[in-house]
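#help-structures
NK: newbie question, is this the right format to request a structure? protein is TonB-dependent siderophore receptor
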Amino acid sequence: MMWNEKGLMRPSEADSAWGGLKSGVSHAVLLWALALTGPVVLAGDAAAQTDGEAPVVLDTLMVGGTPQARYDSRKTDVGGRLSSDITEIPRTIDVVPEQLLQDQHAREMEEVYRYFPNVVNNDGYGGTREDYIIRGFRRRDDVYRNGVRLKSNSRIDPSTIESIQIIKGPVSDIGQMTPGGLVNITTKKPSWTARNHLEVNVDSHGERQTMFDSTGPLSENFAYRIVGSAESSNSFRDDTLVQRQFFAPTLSWVGASGASVTVGYEFSKDKRPLDRGFITYPAGGSLRNVADVSRSTRYDANFSKRDSTYHQGEVDISIPLHSDKWTLEGKLFYNHERTDEIHTEVRSIQSNGLLVRRVEGNDDRNLDTFFGRLQTRGEFEALLPVKLATGIEYRTQKESWINYVGADQVGGTVSNPASWRLTDNSARPTARTARRVEQTDFGPFIQADISLLPTVTLTLGARYELSKGSARVENLLGRGTTVGSYPVDRNLTKTAGVMWKAFEDVSFFANYADTFQPHNFYNGDTQVFPAEKGRQYEVGSKVNLMGERLFMTASLFDIKQSNVVESVNGVAVLTGGQRSRGAELSVVGNPAEGWNIRAAVGYVDAKLESADRSIDGNRPTNVPTHNASLWSSYEFKDPSSPLVGLGLGAGVTLVGNRYGDAQHTFELGSYTLVDAGAWYYIPVGEKKIRLDVGVKNLTDKSYLTASGGTYRVSVGAPRTVYGGISLDF
């Protein structure tokens, strides 16, 4: 089958495919029978065979099980505007496909991040948002959805994910981003191959989740996809209930000329408490210890809650120009999100051991984001072959909310916080402020791939971005309004990369890129800090092994950032700067039929560069010097085997020791987690049932995932047994 750049067939191609699909049904049984006895030989054109040409021999057709295509992990929407194949892009890009999420039973994105080199989880505002660290740098609004930078106060539902891509280092034609890299989520799109999927999942801590996914053609020109899920799950943490609903219909049209339009909508409703986790207590001098209590212990009140709802709309348009070598593309995206929350913060520990806590929260938090892009892509000859992508992007984000703080309440202890009952005094706050933040950025970009030699490609990119921001904080219990604003700031970011295909299966690459990111006003004040600026040097190699069954990426990097602003216990602090140097190695692929493997190891030497001597040279919060992971699965695919349809998988992740704050007053320790799972496919006519069972944290390791400050230490989940059943038809 033939596909255009968007993965959609043109109608002329769809005609033959659609007709072939109908006629092919009558041959399905015959092909299946032939597959059981060995290779399939297509008779093809009789004249061709009488002319002495060899018949076309296909690999043995396997029936049932997981199609190997669903493990494909070499495509990206971000990091290379001119190519989606990561083997051709002169930078490090890691990809996890949807199938791996299913095999690992990943219920949240945070379960996936740890399988990438030099990527670890972060605090995530009490576990309510996506939050991670790449190559020593914490993200700031660097969750991308189909190539659109998106701030969100909610979690990403895994039901919508087609693949997860982590692009390492700055992407200068994107503009604003953390220099460590970014995460891009590719959502599921319509397919002209009909497929329906129903799934139910449970676990030993009270997970109850179901989802459906239906896609296929509506006609020769239209295809649809509808994805939905519902969840009502308990957690190993006390008084923690997660409830969420998700619904996402998408419609695609492809015209006779190759033009295409895809329109999508997403709705999500997510309810879960904001959980600050454990706290620390004084251990002598400036040092502190993390509370040694049960993993279920919460320092929050049972009335804590957080509700978040969003509506997203997206339109993608692609129009071929006067020749097939050029395409005009447009994208529009809008997100409206509403969040309300109430939670408890530990403020201090008195000398008599009693806790000082207070109720806090945010009401009527409305977040609106609009994004637009218009670009053209094509190729031409200018002494040398050139591929070019250029266009302009516009993004505006407005957020308003009411923040309130209750009076301090004294009671409970570190070891027994529930010995004193907190009361909800949010109706009588000691402080209540109305806040509004606006940010706008826009600018042109360009990227070019120049073929210097048949084996050498030079990639150049740049973006000239204009950005501005403003904030308004109004005291609702007294008088006074504070405002702050950034005048229009102009920044030119640029990149250069070289990809050299030294041998048929071995390429070497090098790149330089820089970036910037304006300070935001989300820390409760209107301080104006200079924009953070960063740059990266990277060299590496990409190697195809075993006839492209394995793909290896190795790299060395040096990243530096200035004007770093961190939130320390909710207060904005200009730490000065940061530098990270390190190395990465990852291997992905299927060495043999049915065997899939992912292995990675990362090392990073990250240091703060600050005028504050107490933290200068310290490792940044939550950053380990090393992490490593291995996931391997095997699925029996030989129809003659009595185990056909059975799949087995196991994974190990290791995260080194981390510090819980920039002052290094306490440590989070290192940890190693072991997961194991099994699945079994049962054919029922043309349908296929899959049964899943497994264990996460097999050794029941006690560990801490991240720190948000002295009284905000996230707790890792204990041993969890899970099960699931799904139906494909």
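mod (FA): yep, format's fine, and the tokens are attached above. The chain has a mean pLDDT of 87.
NK: thank you!
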